[in-house]
Amino acid sequence: MLGDVENHSLPRAAAFFDLDKTVIAKSSTLTFSKSFYQGGLINRRAALRTAYAQFVFLAGGLDHDQMERMREYLSALCRGWNVQQVREIVAETLHDLIDPIIYDEAASLIEEHHTAGRDVVIVSTSGAEVVEPIGELLGADRVVATRMIVGEDGCFTGEVEYYAYGPTKAEAVRDLAASEGYDLERCYAYSDSATDLPMLQAVGHPHAVNPDRALRREALARAWPVLEFRRPVPLKKRLPALSVPPRPALVAAAAVGAAAATAGLVWYASRRRSTA
Fold first, then answer.
1. Bigger pLDDT: 189 or 248?
2. Which of 4, 18, 63, 119 is labelled catalytic?
3. Is residue 141 flagged as an active site residue?
4. What mean pLDDT is reported for the chain?
5. Residue 250, strand partner residues
6. For 48, what's the count of Cα atoms within 13 Å in the CB-facing half-sphere?
7. How far is the C-alpha of 230 from the C-alpha of 104, rounded, in Å?
């Protein structure tokens, strides 16, 4: 259990959740690759490569160097993508693609934190065009995500303005604590990746969820709880049990390149194949 309901005379608290392989069972961005293909944003070859990249991600994730190379490649591939089109594709396919892969255990935790009076914040490296609607679906109070610059023509310029990754996630957590009055010692954090160690270390109650090898090693050394989420259950099947209605997500780190994250992982998959 997560403790008693928050005492309102005490400072506020929040629960910070990574998204991919923590709250949902796959990569949020790669899950939309077929929809992006059908919408004309990527070609068939790229769509097939994102399927391979999804496999690589699920098998072991991406380490720091691979993520950095991914970011370097984002600008060239997503330049010119229409942001409104990306948002429309995500909105049209959100329930069909994301609802079935939400971990039942994560949905229960979100419900418990809300019942205890804590805010729920999704903190993800994926783009906000993807993360924001998922956060709303989950009933999150706030979302922190990567954002890219959008030109006057409504298209991505190819420049990354804010990259929600590694230490930057921890900075966002501390900034939110300062602006919202959260007591970080009373806050919770959940992630599957060692790249999120700074965020986990920033709170008083860190948890490793489906951890990669490096994070599992750190969690055991630090005596952090290790959680195994294994039951993706469609959210609509849980609705009778949910006491907290979904609430619109408030974006803490504005609009984002879903396209960008997809682009980088397409490149990563291609690179892995050519290397092999």
1. 189
2. 18
3. no
4. 79
5. 142
6. 4
7. 8
